[in-house]
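Batch manifest line 482
LIGAND: copper (II) ion
JOB: complex structure
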Amino acid sequence: MKILNTTGAIALFATSLLLTSCGNDNAQSKVDASTIKVTGTMEAELTSPPFVPAPVGDRDAKKLIVNMEILEEEGTMADGVTYVYWTFGGTVPGSFIRTRVGDEVEFTLSNHPENKLPHNIDLHAVTGPGGGAASSFVAPGHSKTFSFKTLNPGLYVYHCATAPVGMHIANGMYGLILVEPKGGLPKVDKEYYIMQGDFYTKGENGEPGLQTFDMKKAVDEDADYVVFNGKVGALTGDNAITANVGETVRLYVGNGGPNLTSSFHVIGEIFDNVHVEGGDLINKNVQTTSIPAGGAAIVEFKVDVPGTFIIVDHAIFRAFNKGALGMLKVKGSEKANLYSGVIQEGIYNPEGSTLQSMPGEEVVETKTQNKTLAESIASGKLIYTNTCFACHQANGEGIASAFPPLAESDYLNADLERSINIVLHGKTGKITVNGKKYNSVMTKQTLTNEEVADVLTYVYNSWGNNKTHVKVSDVINANSGH
Ligand SMILES: [Cu+2]
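JOB STATUS: finished
ARTIFACT:
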């Protein structure tokens, strides 16, 4: 006990020393950076999300040429929903820029001749008026060049700052610029680029067709979509980011806003390190990190077990109802000592196996066999709301690229036995529903045969499906392979 205490005290003391010396270093490196000499010129590699350019490593500070093109173009917001995005480099978020401290960045911003509006760029990594905005205002068919020296290491947001600023940001005009310290950030196995943004459309979430920007909703901060990397499903299914068991993953996470703060979280992972607000302060063992609009964070964690890890804004309705949901797929062998999976499954029934009630209360007789269609549907609806709703959504519409629809599902209607088995045993692997591919995981649902019959009866008798009345005997037969 005593020994432990002493160690703790030494550790504390050492940490405080470290912190103090770090603080000094920072003050120093800030002063130093302006005097760092550049040697040679190189063109910056720019990448589209979720990818980032190669690390700077131990290269010297250079004159770094960045050529960024602004494009206004129609893209997909969600299944059946399109939107005219304004972009830096053709993607939302814009191209990732990677520099090191002391670089002299020569930045050329070109506004494509087919664009309709003037734009500019404010880089939070710039020390200078408007972060460059004042020198980069550019009309369609023109380009502007300005240069700046990177003085502070960190992860910074850039965005358009042309009036109405909120509207330019809301249409997707933001991205990240990383300024690595001298010698670069520590090496990791996988690095990815994720940026959250909120979108405001004339139609409600999911309303099909080309949607235009809604200024009133934007002012009211009443977002229709909250997404990672510009659209629903940018990081799910086949677009998921990947890693292997044992690897260290570093995520450069930004938040373009325009309005909402992100409660960034990866379900089933703990961030070993978070560079808080993208700066030098490192917090350890973090569950959820807060990323303000116009801010960023670097999160790092080692992936220890295989599986699909869901990336969310933990303001959770945004994840399941507005699109802020991504996936990290980790491959490798199971580590039962770290995570067992289900060891045993049993029935938990604290009231005993028969239905009980308080004295004086009338015992409602539950009919277990030979329910009418209407009774099955009514009980199935309750089960659906408690069990299936979170993924397949209120009207069986599902979530693009993540959860297939049950409404007018060709897959569901084609094969009753297969559907029963999916509900009984779960489902993983590639399937195609109404022409769209899914490759995800439906967990096993813990339901009685009767509940399976009822919930499927409800599903089959809703949303344009084929009106099958599923009986308990169908469930028993399907389960035994008949
Ligand atoms: Cu703009």
